[in-house]
């Protein structure tokens, strides 16, 4: 055995370093399987009547246009739809939330009419969409 190997631990003074502080970092990512979105379709000028099937087809086509066949195959559910206000509650898997939101943002036409989706609320909890302080009538 060489001198350097033998003296390495014995000859060199060892400084006492404080023990590192140990901690556990917990990060919750996609803790919910689904996200819920309350959206409204707004047309420039006079609104176009859409039933629930046409509304969902518009969203699926927006996903297909931006993200291809993979984007349009995301599990998307239309939970509630109001034909008068063109307002809907959507359920999307957590992994598809950003894709859906971007597709809705870039959707600008339906039947040669300019339109835009307005995202009113989004939450991993459906109950959170039940009340909105912005729509509260205090009068």
UniProtKB/TrEMBL annotation:
GO terms for cellular component: multimeric ribonuclease P complex; nucleolus. GO terms for biological process: tRNA 5'-leader removal. Pfam families: RNase_P_Rpp14. InterPro entries: Pop5/Rpp14/Rnp2-like, Rnp2-like_sf. It comes from the Eukaryota. One of its GO terms (molecular function) is ribonuclease P RNA binding. Coiled coil: none annotated. Keywords: tRNA processing. Belongs to the eukaryotic/archaeal RNase P protein component 2 family. This is Ribonuclease P/MRP subunit p14. The gene is RPP14.
């Amino acid at each position: 055995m060489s001198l350097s190997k033998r003296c390495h631990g014995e000859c060199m003074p060892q400084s006492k370093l404080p023990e590192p502080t140990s901690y556990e970092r917990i990060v919750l990512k996609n803790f919910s399987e689904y996200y819920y979105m309350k959206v409204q379709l707004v047309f420039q000028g006079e609104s176009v009547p859409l039933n629930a099937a046409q509304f969902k087809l518009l969203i699926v086509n927006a996903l297909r246009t931006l993200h291809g066949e993979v984007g349009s195959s995301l599990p998307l559910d239309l939970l509630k739809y109001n034909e008068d206000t063109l307002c809907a509650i959507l359920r999307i898997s957590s992994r598809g939330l950003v894709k859906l939101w971007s597709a809705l943002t870039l959707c600008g036409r339906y039947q040669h009419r300019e339109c835009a989706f307005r995202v009113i609320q989004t939450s991993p909890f459906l109950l959170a969409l039940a009340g909105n302080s912005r729509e509260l009538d205090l009068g």
